[in-house]
Design goal:
single chain, Arc Repressor Mutant, subunit A
Length: 65
Amino acid sequence: MVDRISYSVHEAAKAAGIGLTKLREEIRAKRLVARKLGKRTLINADDLNAWASSLPRVNDERRAA
């Protein structure tokens, strides 16, 4: 199987486990890089992974209490 190098907006939202509205908010806020090919908006897999890795961690101290 060949790994994907880019996703449509719908595919990226599904891969990230978030809604389309939230994904578009992240793009508008420039926290997630999107690229254009004609009318299509594409999200590179590396950019999607970098965005996910940049999200804040859950505070482990709250879980221990």
